[in-house]
Amino acid sequence: MFGSNSIKKILPIVLLVVLTALVYFPSLSGGFLLDDYPNIVNSSAVKIESLDYESLYILATSGVSSKIGRPISFLSFGLNYFFYGFDPFYFKIINLLIHIANAIILFVITSVLHKNYQQYWGDKKYNNLPIFLALLWAVHPINVSTTAYIVQRMTLLSATFTLLGVLFYILPRLKISNRIFGQTIAVFLMLVFMGLGILSKENAVLLPLFILLIEKLLIPQTDKTADNSLIIFILIPTIIVSFYVVLHPGYVTKGYSIREFDIIQRLLIQPEILAGYIGDILLPLEGKLTFYKDIYKLPVVSDLMVADLVYPSLAVFFAVMFLVISKKKPIFAFGGGFFIAGHLLESTSLPLELAFEHRNYLPGVGVLLIVVLVLHCIFEKMRINWKVCSTMAVAFLLSQTYFHCLNWSNPFLLFESEVAKSPNSFRANIDLARIYAEFYITTQDKQHKVKAISSLKKAIELNENASAAYAYIIWLNSMDNYPIQNWVLTGFLKSLAYHPADRKNPKRVNRLITMYDGGYKLPENYIKKCIIALERNLIPYNNKYFSEVLTTKAKFYWLINKDIDSAVIYANEAIDASPRISKYYENRVELLLVNGLKQKAAKAYDKYKAVFPVEAESKYRGVFKDGG
Questions:
Q1: 400-418 pLDDT, tens digit each
Q2: Measured at the alpha carbon of residue 352, what is the angle toward residues 332 and 34, in degrees to the nearest 5?
Q3: For residues 16 and 413, what is the distance between their CA atoms, to the nearest angstrom?
Q4: Could you count the other beta carbons within 10 Å of the beta carbon of residue 499?
Q5: Which residue from 141, 135, 142 is spatially nearest to 102, judged by alpha carbons?
Q6: What does each C-alpha distance from 533 to 178, 499, 549, 551 come to in angstroms?
Q7: Which residue intervals of 51-152 are DSSP H helices?
Q8: pTM over the 0.90 mark
């Protein structure tokens, strides 16, 4: 049925699938974590009961991770729920299947480019490069956090469409005999897949840069039918984004109002972070790889003065090295360029967190390509058996990834191991406390509460302005009706006034109000002081944060002051501050309904429906009739 040639073609893919599935299998038993909850578990839009247009529309537009909303990623979460409910196993297995598919696509791309490389450069080395590179990438432990962390499906899907964009660019580009027609089809397909990728996560906007690297470094000069006009066309998306940032500088700078670093500090620390990423890729020891990257020391004024000289010099040095290498060893230059290009969005000027492991998911391919090429050269010169050594390298990665996946199979193991690796990580300590707290709720085992508070105190030692840590201590003590120590109340109030404000502060004060309404009554005057602290420490340019503060204030007047009229006023102001966010319209309707103000609620519903018709009708079907 199958000839020997067919088996040889299929065998690498089978090997790739089997090894990746087996090594990742332990991670499938882990549950939801961290950002999985606001994006998936606690999202009402994800809980679709049918596949009708209304449900899918609400789901696709429910994303809050970015302005685009990442609709394709959220549609995948909703479909996961529709078929399997909130069983994390099925969410994780879909992630794993996407990762395996990405590895297969990478193998195919590398095979096509490798064949093209041999054909035109006359270089018959590296015959096993495609499968070895795909295997190293597929089973590398640095990709575990991207695959096992459910919400990172956004990164996985964006990579899928980016890789497909590369594949369906190079196939017609290299295979269609009519070169002009082939170029046209190639660019069209690239733009289609780039669009799909951006709707999953914005990283796919880098696809034209990857294509440009392929054109300049891997397509032979004798086949350069892609002239300057094509290169310019490929760069159009990049040019548009650049002009938008230049014309709207606030789009970048205003995001720093919630960070403890500015744009200069972020840019200057990124070389150190990128070097750390490369180190993790080159020497991926399980005991060294960390999920949390909040341990970098920000440069101070004196550091900035030195960096003004050092970093531009380094930039010039690496640019010159890139040009030299691109002439002599273009494939090596491609690997380095691919890594840098892959980090241009998340590791440059955008006001994101300083570092995350998942940012290396696709860029890591570039580093691994160089590793494969260097190892091959070394083994060839030393006359070492290439197959034996490559098998040993894959086996090493498999062992590290397996143990890494074991940690991801259990939240206790994961966060305890993270604290052990990074004891001075604030986030590792506070997330470990969160896990202990969750287990205390379900088991009522006092030891879990003791360990949770111990981790929270450690987090406060690392960051005395961390409102989250104080809020957790208050919440844990309220569960047993224990009094709150003054240092905790004072610390929480002080942390609310600390600049920059934590975006979740309004929700933490909101919880105090809920606790008060439920019987655990902190002094009313103290809660009022917390609200005043929120109002005095607003986040500049952030209307949503202002709306959250106003919503919290409305709840205070409703549940504590029993002043419904004032509560409605603040609910209205929350809508005025963020008129394109639906939940504030819903909050106003609910406030009026709960307090028996049905006619006012109907009018509020009509206003809700005028802005968000599909969502409003879905939520209040049967509650209001004839337009309210």
A1: 999 999 999 988 889 999 9
A2: 105
A3: 28
A4: 12
A5: 135
A6: 68, 11, 10, 15
A7: 53-60, 71-84, 88-121, 129-138, 144-148
A8: no
